[in-house]
Design brief:
A hairpin with a 3-residue loop joins strand 3 and strand 4 (78-83). The protein has three domains: 23-140 and 152-191, TBP-like (2-Layer Sandwich), CATH 3.30.2030; 211-347; 360-429, no CATH class. It is α+β, with helices and mostly antiparallel strands. It is built from nine helices and nine strands. The two termini are 73 Å apart.
Length: 432
């Protein structure tokens, strides 16, 4: 019956993603080497091609594979590859013989050809070694006894309801940060989950810290931007002419563009740092750690070392947003002042235009009066010539006829001018 129903094209993919990246069950002693490379979107295909090279060079089988993760099994090691938004991780697992001593340079990927490692796209951001032993091989007491008061600050805790002891100092030693996990009574899956959480803590810790250098860089620029804005506000308060206000507005617009560019450039980084920090604290909470007397827990260490860096990123992000809002608000106020000044100038211009129009109207009326006189004069001259030419047809004097025609012609010209003016005024008012 269900086969006849139309299935959403993403149903299977989403369900597979829900079950993706389960922890690998771990049995006995194990050396885990974890490499994380920060990549770009253009290197994803290159990573897959590089993984294909590894499968061809090693006698291996694929346990699970998808677009974003792959697990390979060889005779010498097991490798797990995971693709994330900003980085890719390569985790190698190599079983150890109980009681086997490890050289300082030993890794879980010793069997991998160095050329293949060198061809992994991206830049190395995390390299960690995790050594999983049982408490029968290495007792927690012996580890605690070797700690010196003047040595490195060791972070330690008992996790999973006292099922294991974990030790680290989060320092990079010989290129790797190092973890020691002493298994007291963890099951295979509990051991796998504990190892996975520790590696994720280290990965997300470093990824979250990528925002700190950006915050320090932006902090220096923010100080200059805030100082420049304060100076601009003083200039605006002292502006005495529209040119001064327009000049200040131009500088303020340039500052606004710089602020928005900085916000656009750093928003993703600060947001990612906040998200990674949340994942770090979540993974620590999932460890269910309890204190080892005299040593800080993972939670305490992150609160003291990582949280101040995240607070710095958050504070700088907030300062950027506040500066952007202040610049926008002051720009709006200054534009309002400039607009008011422009409106005042426009009103003065309209007043001057009205004065010119009134003057032109008076001049026009004067010209119209003169036109009546001129047209009357020329009209009377025409009548005089006609009277002289037809004097044989009448007995009136030419001068009398001319004198009589003058008021008649003047009246006709005046009447015609008035009528034409009314017609033009009506046509001008018609469209409105």
């Amino acid at each position: 019956m269900i086969a006849e129903l139309e299935e959403h094209p993403l149903r299977q993919r989403l369900n597979n993603e829900f079950h993706a990246r389960p922890p690998i069950p771990l049995v006995g002693a194990m050396l885990v080497s974890h490499l994380v490379f920060k990549h770009s979107a253009t290197t994803v295909q290159a990573e897959r091609d590089n993984l294909t090279v590894l499968t061809q060079a090693q006698n291996c089988s694929s346990i699970e594979s998808s677009d974003s993760h792959m697990t390979l099994e060889t005779g010498a090691f097991r490798m797990r590859w995971e693709l994330h938004t900003e980085f890719s991780s390569y985790t190698f697992f190599r079983p150890l013989v109980s009681g086997e001593a490890l050289h300082q340079d030993a890794t879980a990927f010793d069997a991998v050809h160095p050329d293949w490692l060198g061809s992994i796209p991206g830049q190395l951001i995390v390299a960690a070694h995790l050594e999983l032993r049982s408490t029968e091989e290495i007792s927690p007491e012996s580890v605690l006894a070797n700690l010196t008061p003047s040595g490195r600050t060791m972070v330690a805790a008992k996790v999973a309801d006292d099922g294991a002891w974990i030790f680290t100092d989060f320092k990079i030693d010989n290129g790797f940060s190092r973890f020691l996990v002493l298994n007291a009574n963890l099951t295979q899956r509990q051991a796998g989950r504990t190892v996975q959480r520790l590696l994720e803590i280290e990965t997300y810790r470093m990824m979250s810290l990528l925002g700190l250098p950006v915050a320090k860089e932006v902090s220096r620029w923010l100080y200059k931007g805030e100082k420049q804005l304060a100076e601009l506000m003083d200039q605006i308060g002292q502006a005495r002419s529209p040119d001064d206000e327009r000049k200040a507005l131009s500088i303020l617009s340039g500052l606004a563009a710089e602020v928005e560019h900085s916000v656009a450039r750093t928003t993703f980084r600060f947001g990612a740092s906040h998200a990674y920090h949340g994942l770090v604290m979540q993974r620590i909470e999932e460890l269910r750690e309890s204190r080892i007397s005299g040593l800080p827990t993972f939670y305490e260490f992150m609160q003291r070392r990582l949280l101040p860096a995240m607070n710095t990123c958050e504070a700088i992000s907030r300062r950027q947003e506040e500066l952007s809002a202040r610049v926008a608000r002051n720009s709006q106020l200054l534009r309002t002042r400039v607009d008011i000044e422009l409106e005042r100038q426009n009103q003065e211009l309209l007043g001057q235009m009205n004065q010119r129009a009134s003057l032109q109207l008076r001049l026009q009326e004067t010209v119209e009066g003169l036109s009546v006189v001129v047209l009357t004069y020329y009209g009377s001259q025409l009548v005089q010539y006609l009277a002289k030419g037809t004097k044989d047809l009448h007995h009136l004097s030419t001068d009398v006829i001319t004198a009589i025609s003058i008021p008649v012609i003047a009246g006709l010209v005046f009447w015609g001018t008035r009528r034409m003016r009314k017609k033009l005024a009506a046509e001008a008012a018609g469209p409105h």
